[in-house]
Amino acid sequence: MTTDGGGWTTFQRRMNGSVDFYVDWESYKKGFGNLEGEFWLGNDYLHRLTASASMVFRIDVEDYEGDRRFAEYTTFAVADESDDYRVTIDGYRGTAGDALVSLDRPISFSRNAFDILEI
């Protein structure tokens, strides 16, 4: 990704609903979809990426009129499966609003396929 100087890893892309994101635990663990279209990279990969170094998390959104906004978090880590891939996130800046840090509970993946956090 070349956004904001480049060096980003895209781990989720959703555009047109061509991929079902209401899938089971194992699918989120290993990843699903197509890297050329909609996909989820995989929780195991996210854990490995964030366990070894400090990472910044960035969300870029574009509406149907082409207006773009972003949210960036200076602290981002994903725990391993034994901790239900708990997400640590903090340090917001951006134009999209801070929907993640303001949550009043920790963010974890649920083993119920239809209880995945959506914001």
From TrEMBL:
It is found in: Secreted. PROSITE patterns: FIBRINOGEN_C_2. The keyword Signal applies. Keywords: Coiled coil, Disulfide bond, Glycoprotein, Secreted, Signal. It holds the Pfam family Fibrinogen_C. Its main location: secreted. GO terms for cellular component: extracellular region. SMART domains: FBG. This is Fibrinogen C-terminal domain-containing protein. It comes from Pocillopora damicornis (Cauliflower coral).
